[in-house]
Amino acid sequence: MPHSVRGVVARAKGEPVTVEMIQVPDPGPGEVLVAVQACGVCHTDLHYREGAINDEFPFLLGHEASGIVEEVGEGVTNVAPGDFVILNWRAVCGECRSCLRGRPWYCFATHNATQKMTLDGVELSPALGIGAFAEKTLVHSGQATKVDPAARPEVAGLIGCGVMAGLGAAMNTGNVGRGDSVAVFGCGGVGDAAIAGSHLAGAHTIIAVDLDDRKLEIALEFGATHTINSSKEDPVEAIRTLTEGNGVDVAIEAIGLPVTYEQAFYARDLAGTVVLVGVPNPEMRIELPMIEVFGRGGTLKSSWYGDCLPSRDFPMLIDLYLQGRLDLDRFVSETISIDEVEEAFHAMERGEVLRSVVVL
Ligand SMILES: NC(=O)c1ccc[n+]([C@@H]2O[C@H](COP(=O)([O-])OP(=O)(O)OC[C@H]3O[C@@H](n4cnc5c(N)ncnc54)[C@H](O)[C@@H]3O)[C@@H](O)[C@H]2O)c1
Ligand SMILES: [Zn+2]
Ligand SMILES: [Zn+2]
């Protein structure tokens, strides 16, 4: 019997989201039905609503979630009913070119549920293959990672996207290490996680850049050693001044704009690394003098999901949280009901929150 549950749907580009009754099938082979407990509002949900990711409307939004496994399909062995899980959008296949080269975090053929959730008979496109602003959701078994149930659901869910993306952008993609200098452009949930990750990894100088002083204040709590309000001063100059004229070893762009990508590019030291974790829209262009790309050396990288492996990283990060070494509570600005996602988008746009988290 399919399950009728409430879910947050984006029906058309730019239109406010609505809560609808959707149909969620029973899990088939390799699938898992999860009773969602909490799901964070990530900027990527808003990108979907704006049509900036693709135009496969209607979308079932939400992808930063934790919950309890309710039912498993045939052949599922990694989780069982009653398990507390974080959902992920990187269920690695183990068979693609990248997995076979020993780089599963770049997996080119990640798994999602085979069956579709529907709205009035129309197939829904779940955001990032998850769709968790819903009382229940259907995912591939590899998309459910079991973690210690001692962690609060609204905190654990955040590991499922933004926090992992930011932590991993610093620790995995940027390979930040002890003594490094780092600049993070954009201090939302993702940027602050990059700051927290740089701090955990032992960075010496961590420079937070944002347009909003409220965000910069919070960035200090996550481990930023300096802040720059780039509406008031040139961030490239300011970063040079803070690094003996050199620039930073790792510059992380966590907004997704050409202007801040260029700032990150020029704020980096010779042979340094630029990490793009912010998501651009398809129209955006960057123009850089090729001689600068060549002459500065180093590495320009993009970071999808912090180059994480959920099965390796999620339980470890939850353990660090439970040991008091990673402050995930601070990311939860407010908890809201499933009816308040549209308002949460506006709060995000107004810069009032790091994360609004829907609690079910
Ligand atoms: N690569 C990935 O795997 C991944 C995963 C999750 C989210 N993201 C992306 O990361 C980005 C950030 O997500 P978020 O949820 O933290 O968003 P957010 O809206 O909460 O944070 C963005 C921050 O950037 C600041 N900002 C905006 N314009 C700026 C500018 N010109 N200069 C300096 N600061 C500026 C804002 O004040 C805000 O604090 C989004 O593009 C999102 O889609 C990427
Ligand atoms: Zn693969
Ligand atoms: Zn996200």
How does this model look, in words?
- This protein is an alpha/beta fold.
- It folds into 2 domains: 3-160 and 327-359, Quinone Oxidoreductase, Chain A, domain 1 (Alpha-Beta Complex); 166-304, 3-Layer(aba) Sandwich (Rossmann fold).
- The chain is 26% helix and 27% strand.
- It has helices spanning 43-49, 97-100, 153-156, 162-173, 189-200, 213-221, 235-242, 258-266, 290-295, 310-322, 341-349; strands spanning 3-10, 18-24, 31-40, 59-60, 64-72, 84-87, 118-119, 122-123, 125-126, 136-140, 144-146, 181-185, 205-210, 226-229, 248-253, 268-276, 299-302, 332-336, 355-359.
- Strands 3, 5, 6, 10, 11, 18 and 19 form a 7-stranded mixed sheet that branches. It has a 6-stranded parallel sheet with strand order 14-13-12-15-16-17, sandwiched between helices. A 4-stranded mixed sheet has the order 2-1-4-9, with no helix packed on it.
- The protein is globular.
- The two termini are 22 Å apart.
- 51% of the residues are buried.
- The mean pLDDT is 97.
- Bound molecules: nicotinamide-adenine-dinucleotide (NAD) and zinc ion (2 copies).
- Residues 92-96, 98-99, 107-109 line the site of one zinc ion.
